[in-house]
Every structure is written in C-alpha cells, then in structure tokens.
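Instructor's aside before we start: the two examples that follow are unrelated to each other. I chose them only because their records fit on one page, so don't look for a connection. First example below.
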Amino acid sequence: MLLGSYPQAILHIDADAFFASVEQVVHPELKGKPIITGAERGMVIALSYEAKAFGVKRGMRVGEARKLCPGLISVPSDYETYGLFSKRMFEIVRRFTPQVEEYSIDEAFADLSGLRRLHHCSYPEMARQMKEAVEKELGLSVSVGLSLSKSLAKLASKFCKPSGLTCVPGRELEIFLVQNSIDKVWGFGKNSVALLHKQGIQTVLDFIKRPHGFAKKLFGKIGSELWHELSGTSVYAVDSMEKTSYQSISKFKTFSPSTTDPDYLFAHLLRNLERALSKMRRFHLATRRLVMILRSHDFVDDVLEITLSRYATAVLDLVGPVRDNFDQFFKEGKTYRASGVVLCDLKDDRKIQLNIFEDPVRMVKAQRLDSAVDALNRQFGRQAVHLADSLPVDKNRGGVRNIPSARRQNLLKGESKRRRLGLPVLQIKLGS
C-alpha cells in the first residue's frame, strides 16, 4: 500500500469523560475523585475515569454503582453547562480550520488539508496545538486522532485515551491497523463484527487486505465505503453545514420514581409530543406517522405506531389520535420509567397539498396557535405554555428526578429558573 503521508488530513477530537470532566472543572473539589452524573435520574449517565477504575458503567443504578465504589460522588446532570463547554471547545477548533463538523456534544471532525502554510507547521503539530489549546483554556482532557479519513481519524482518537494524540500518516497505516481489532471500527456493530469474525477477520488490517468486492458483497454500500475509508481513501467529507433536515425526530423522557399512573404517563407523552412537534416546525416539516413508546421498569418497551390520514404539523391534530390509542398499549398495573415519541415519514410542510375534505380555515387557525405558543416559549422558556392535559407532569414531580444542578441553584443577579446568561459558573466550596 503506497500512500502519501497526508493526501488529506482529517482530525477527530473527542473530550474524555466529558460530562464528568466538566463537573470536575466547575467543582474543583471533585478533581481526582470518582464521580457520576445522573443523580436526578437515579442512574449513571456519565462517569469519571476514577469511577471507571472501580468497574462502574453507564446505565447502572446509583445504588448498584455505590456497592462497587463506596466513595462514589453522585451529582445532578447540568446539560446547560455541558453545552456551553461544548460550544467553547468547537470555537477553539475553528481557530485552526473553518471546516468543522460537530458530530456530537463532545466530539468533532475537522479538515486540516491545505492549512500547513497558513499555520506554518505540519499537520501533527497543528493537531498538538489544538489539543493543548483546548486543555489549557477549558481544563478538559481531550483525545485527538489525525489521519487520512474520518473513519481512520476516529479510530486514532480512541487508540490512546485519555488525553491521547495519535497521528497516522499513510506510510504508517498498516502498522496502525494491525493493532486495532475490527470491533473498534466506527460503523460496525456487534452483529457485523460477529459476521466478520466468522470470515476469519480479527483486525482492521485483515479487513482491508480482503478485496473490495468482498466488503461490498458482505455489507453492501456501507461495507464498500468503510473499506475505502479504512484503506486511506476519504469517502465521508467533513460536513460543516448545520443540520437542516431529518428523517425522524424523537423526544424521550425518563422520570423518577417509576409510576403506574396512566394520567401521569399520558401527560408525559403529550410533553414529548409538544417538544418533538416544536422542533419539527422549526425545520418546516410535517409528519404522517407517529410512534409512541412506554418503557417499563425492567427496560422493556411497549410501542404503538399511528399513521395519520394526512400530513400534520399542529399539536391539536395529533392529541386526538394519541388519546384514542393510549389505552391500546398502556398495561394496567405495569410500572413504567420512561416515555417517548418518534415523528416519522417527514416532509417539507410547504409542499403539502390539501384534499377537498380538509377544513383550511381550521388548519390555518391551528398553525397560528402553534406559532404563537412557539414564540411565547422562546421568550419565556421551554414549555412555559403547554397543553392542559400535560399538567400532571408538573403536579407529580418528586423523588430524585427533581434534583436541580448547582448552576440552577446558584443564579446570578437578574437570572430566573427559566432564563439564564450563557455562562458556566465556577462553584468553589471553601473549607470550614
């Protein structure tokens, strides 16, 4: 395999134990201690490396995690602050290149190709400077991978965590790939890995040594693309455009304590529905298919799908079908811990044609009502205005689910519970 050092230079940056690390930055007394976030849910949402050393894993109940790690510190999730740190991290990455793809809240891809002359340094040096800037300015540990494609860059960033910097030029590609098992490839799930193992493929190098036709026959288009990506030919471009279209939109909510109350569950479904529809309208979409989900205490999902007679955007168009079908999949006496809705079969709402049986006046009124509600919620906070049938969500709040984050408890002058300045606040506890 003869490849230039960096025919294309793609970087992947990944914050290490992001949520827990942010908590340790904002609360300096937590540094070096085993902590988890998710106290408000009673389960482990994220955890520090110190907690991982004791065998604590995501998804565990807090009580179960404490048995493994008696000194475990549990804090409520502070997504507002996590989002602010994420934004600042991406701003630092954009100092080096404008071509940045925000892949998730704590990771991004960046295309550095052609920027050596601008920065007067090599691609590995550029990656090192970016990593040091993030760690110095934010106090967060990040792992960085640099290589010839997005798949290789992501593989490289995972190779040496935490706080790793792995640069894989073309001439060292085979040496790197033989050290990575096939299950580490971004895009291969458990079933795909099991199939590859049956074909005698253990490492990533084993995979790319097979003919291209082998990968395409086994996995189709995705197999072909991954074979090229892992062989050093970039297929997936770094997409710096903000996402403006969706195949589906989902909203899910876990509550604590779990409940058997049908009114409370129905209210939660409506809240999820309102949030999903609000997001859908923001992108000028309409839905024709709705999926409702109730998750039991033992993590078993009851699911019901509703197909509408026409595309809809208004809350009032979907409340009726949700109410009429709720009893079909709610099981009396069963304990539920979460609910969710998924809006599918989405279409541009500006391209929808009415049939002769529609009531255009009613539709326009419903759309105007939603527009007014969206405007009020933007001004006064999410779901400041909501359906009356969702009131039990507010009335029945209790248990650990209602534990506020430190940022919500310590408001700055002029802030309210719904409206705050976009500033992370350092929470320092002074010794007695």
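Example two begins here.
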Amino acid sequence: MTSKEVLARLTWMGSPANVAGMARFGITPKSRILGISIWELGKLKKEIGSDHKLAQELWASGIHEARILASFIEDPAQVTERQLDRWVKDIDSWDIVDQVSALIAHTPFVMKKIRQWSKRDGEFVKRAAFSLIAELAWWDTRLTDADFEPFFPMIKAAATDDRNFVRKAVNWALRNIGKRNRALNRRAIAVAKEIGKLDARAARWIAADALRELTSEKVRARLNAPSRTRTI
C-alpha cells in the first residue's frame, strides 16, 4: 500500500465520536486526530506488514493515528538514532509515547535514549524514558537484575515531577521492575519507600501507588510461583 492509500483508508476509518471519547482519556494532541482505536490500527498493521519507507511517510503526515501506525510497521533494524530523536520531538500525546516505546525498545539505542530522555524537560520526551523502562521490564528476559539497577536513581530523580504524564510513567516503570522477580520486588519496594519520604506530592503518590501493588497478595503469589520467570 502507498502512503496515499493508507492515509485515505485512515480518513475513512475515522470517527468524530471516538475523538471526543479519546479526549476524556487525556488524548488531545495538537496534531490532526481521526478517532481510530489501537485495535483497528493493529488489524491494518497485519495487512501492511513491515515497511520502513511507508513508516517514514506516515509519520511525516503529522496525523495522530498515522504516526501510531508508523511505529507499528517500522522495522527496528532500520531505525536510526537520528530518526528517534526527530520522532520524539514530534510527539504530542501520551498514547503515542507508549506505542512508539514498543518500537524503540527493540532498537540498539534504547538504553542510550533512556539515559538521555530521562534528563529532558519536555513532558512527553521525559515520559518516553520511563515508558521504555516499563516496556523493558515487562518482556525483555535477556536483561539481568543488574541491568535495572541504574534505572532506580533515574526514577527517584524524576519522582518529584508533578506533571501527570511524567509521574504516571515513573510509577509505571517502578511497578514493572518490581514485578519482575522477588529480588527486584524487594529493591523496588525499598526505593518506593525512599521516594515516599521526598517532599513532593508527586513522590508521595508514586510511592503509595507502587507500594500498594508491589506488596499485594496478587503480586506476591505470582512472584512465588515455582515456574515464574517474569511478570505476565
């Protein structure tokens, strides 16, 4: 499919009612938004397959859903660091951050981008760093406990950021690390308690929410299961 054909298809799939519904979840990008669900975009992804050139063209369109679809069909092996820096500057909504993170996590630049973006001021750029940590903690079984240790100072440093989409991503990163195994659960709980002592409303919320889940019976049962290797 050409970019013209895909964009025409996306326009046809759009729903003004869905746009209003998305706004209630804080999805209010400055770019054009059509109101297409992730599920529908996923079906279109299966039709298209992997296409680096098309992904570039869809991202350049500036349309919200076209950019999400671009991240779905992009080939991680062909992504460049320059491309990631350009894309992250364009991001104007939390949902694009989280969808693009699934792509970035499979590139060789993920660790570098986490370090860099965790220090940035932009709300969505900073969210991207912690969304990536959460992504890696969720599925990457190649990483050791030691690989996650450098993330804790980043999480603690960002825990005083009161911006909604940053603090939620910081919390998400801490919870996902803590659900990975028993050792990281203990470490994440200790860090959450340290964060809770910080003089910031965001830090207190992050700590309380993380501790609520990480000390829950449900999480403990999963971590203590004999066959358990990671969070499901």
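Confidence is low (pLDDT under 50) at residues 228-232.
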